[in-house]
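If it is no trouble, might I ask you for a protein's amino acid sequence along with its C-alpha cells?
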Amino acid sequence: MIGMGVVKGMLVTLREFVGTYPWGRGMLRMLRIRPGSGLFTIEYPDVKQEHAERFRYFPFLVYDGTPDNLRCVACKICEQECPPKCIYIEPARDAEGRPVKAHGRTLPARFDIDTSICMSCRICVDVCPFDAIEMDNQYEIAAGDREQELLFDKEKLLRSAEYFEQIKPSEAAVVNQRLSAKAKKPA
C-alpha cells in the first residue's frame, strides 16, 4: 500500500515523543509498546557529545617524533583524488629545482586544506600510500572569516602519531602494523 512507510515513520516519531514524558512511558507500558530511548538532546556546550572512534571530521597530517619527520612525501595523490578539490600541495624544491628531502622523504613546502569546502569523505585517507593523512574528530571549528581562518596550512594540520593513537587506537594499531611490515621489507 502506498504511504505505509510514512505512516510507520510517524508512529515511531509519536512513540519517541510520548516516551519522553513519565506519564507517556507508563501509558506505553500499559499498551505493551516498548518505549524508545527517550530524550536525545544534550546540553551543548556544557555537555560534549561522545563520538565513535570511526567519527570523522577534517583531515590532519601525521608526523613521527618531530614535525620535520612528516609522513607526507608530497606525492599529490590525495590532491588529485579529492572530489571538492580542497587540498593543495606544493613540493619543497631547492634553488636548482630539485626536491628537498628529509629523513629520506620529499617534503611538502605547502600543504593546505580548505575546510570550508571539505566534505569529510575520507578519500584522501584511503588513497594515501604513506598513511600520512588521517581524519580528526575535532568538530568545534568556527571562524568569522571563511577566506583565511578555515584555510588550514601545514603547521595547523600537523598532529603527532601519538595524538592519532590516542583518538583512534584501533585504527592506529592497524596503521602501525602496516608501517612496521613495510619497514621490515628488504630495500
About this structure: The chain has a mean pLDDT of 88. Strands lie at 59-63, 87-91, 101-102, 105-106, 108-114, 133-135, 151-152, 158-160.
